[in-house]
Amino acid sequence: MQVHSEFNERDLGHGASETVLHPLVVVALLVAMVLMLWRPRKFAVIPLFLCAFLVPREQQVLLLGAHFYIRFILVLTGFVRVVQSGFRIAGGFNIIDKLFLVWVSYRFFAATITNWPTGTMEQLQFLLQAICGYFLLRYLIQNEEDVARAAKTLALCAFILGVCMLYEKHSQINPFGMYLGGAPITPEIRNGSARAQATFGHSILAGCFGGTLVPLFMWLWSKKAKAASVFGLAGSTLMVLTANSSTPLLAYVAGILGLLLWPVRNTMKYLRWALVATIAALAIQMNAPVWFVIAHVDVVGGSGGYDRAVLIDSCIRHISEWWLIGTNQNGGWGYDMWDMSNQFVAEAETGGLIALICFIAMIVKCFSRLGTMRKTAKPEQQWLMWCLGSVMLSHLFAYLGVAYWDQTQIWWFGFLAMISAVTIPAAPQALTKADPPASKASKLAVLQEAGPQVSTTVKSPDIQPTLRPWSGLKL
Questions:
Q1: CB 422 within 8 A of CB 91
Q2: What is the pTM assigned to this prediction?
Q3: For 81-85, 298-302, 427-431, which range has the lowest pLDDT when averaged over its residues?
Q4: What is the pLDDT confidence band of residue 14, given thresholds at 50, 70 and 90?
Q5: How far apart are the first and last CA of the chain?
Q6: Predicted local confidence at residue 303, as pLDDT
Q7: Distant-in-sequence, close-in-space partners of 258: CB < 8 Å, separation ≥ 6
Q8: Residue 319: which of 284, 357, 359, 276 has the closest Cα?
Q9: pLDDT tens across 177-215, in order?
Q10: CB 145 within 8 A of CB 47
């Protein structure tokens, strides 16, 4: 049996030469599938996250030449519930959902054309996993309590992974690879130090998963879930340190920095303009483009900051080759330019300018919705908005050094679902109370008494306080 564990091998057409499925994984998968299908909706996210993050990435079923990874099977199984519910997602179909669909659809179209016919299976897997996974998590995470439940599950995952990665770093044996398979048994060594990766596709991705969770675990402390918060923070810290990479460490620090800005939350406008001015000053003073600042970042020694700066520079200089539908010729741009270890470069070179713009627009809209909701939310909810904004800041720093392609995609989809769930504007009080039996005329009079701010016609699904079916997709 041969197992592929190369960086960026992530599609239905790549993997082991036969099914790689440990008996314990089979049991865990079947239990997770049963729980996801027949347990109440609010609990289904627990088996999904536990199985997706604690099972080695390359555990898979080989069927008719296609490789069905565990997380892909879980996503397809859970999507059955979404279909059965009539696509009842929290707040209805919002702008983030629209941008997501345009992004994933055009990325699939562009990459399929560019890599035809060899990349078809890879792009099909990406399309199905992205759409099914995203809307599954939009269905499972509908309110603040669902966010808390998902965060507690992620805290458990982070703690288990952190302890295992600590063992992996010091023993130079990956317990997941040793006892379950589907992951390298021995970790990569950099400058004499092991880079633990646990169940993930690469040590950088493992570290970024842990590093971007920190603000969410800090929020759990305020939810009186102190045990989950402590265990989650301990696990995240261990994951970042044992990954032995600068990118996860910078993402970890960025999340903490975002939290520390809470006292000056009402003056962030001035801070943002100061940041713009700093970047402009650097662009004027530096002999190289401003993105070469990344080349000077080396936290753990032996970092690839310079390579990532050159990657960004090469991408910008070759915009004429990728702006329409991406390119598969980036490997010829220079040494190691095949490795798209930057999420924004990966979007550009895979899906062209449209995919890149949609991806950035999703991030901007997430920040915008969080900021708008924080200004009108209750005091106890404002901290949640700020913590989620800090998670997004952490993701942005991670994206400068890596592109998500393994289980971390599930975490990204879940995070977007959390933002949509907690940024649903509250309905006017006259509409939220249960109406007693009365005539249509009396109900209209109540609405008119509420004032001009209450409209008798709901024009946008963004302002719905309850679940409503999304009729934009017919199956």
A1: no
A2: 0.87
A3: 427-431
A4: low
A5: 39
A6: 74
A7: 215, 386, 389, 390, 391, 393, 394
A8: 357
A9: 999 999 999 999 988 899 999 999 999 999 999 999 999
A10: no
Nearby residues of 8 by Cβ (< 8 Å), 6 or more positions away: 339, 340, 405
Q: What is the torsional sign of CA 356, 11, 366, 386? A: negative
Residue 12 is predicted with a pLDDT of: 57
Amino acid residing at 130: A
Cis peptide before 175 (omega within 30 of 0): no
Each residue's pLDDT tens digit, 105-149: 999 999 999 999 888 888 999 999 999 999 999 999 999 999 999
Q: Name the band, by pLDDT with cuts 50, 70 and 90, for residue 8.
A: very low
Q: Which two tokens stand for residue 400?
A: 């400068």
Q: 205: which 2 tokens? A: 């991705």
